[in-house]
Design goal:
Layout: E1 2-3, H1 6-12, H2 18-25, E2 34-37, E3 52-57, H3 58-70
Antiparallel strand pairs: 1-3, 2-3
């Protein structure tokens, strides 16, 4: 089951790579927590063109849920 990255798209306007999501939200997403999109569009923060996250597994969403619920922006 894959779940949406809508909160990230709403906030940043683009998909981010897993490393930038971990840094920005203070979580530790693992490879199995996300699904990637290999694209020529880079992550807007670090410029990586691989490991751009397009969706989350249930485990990944669970790790982010408390962060999204407690953010003001």
């Amino acid at each position: 089951m894959l779940l949406t990255t809508r909160p990230i798209l709403r906030r940043f306007g683009m998909y981010l790579c897993r490393e930038c999501i971990n840094r920005e939200y203070g979580v530790h997403l693992k490879r199995e927590d996300v699904r990637y999109k290999y694209t020529e569009d880079p992550c807007p923060y670090c410029g990586a063109t691989n490991h751009v996250v397009t969706s989350f597994t249930v485990t990944g969403l669970y790790k982010l849920r408390h962060v999204w619920e407690n953010r003001d922006d």
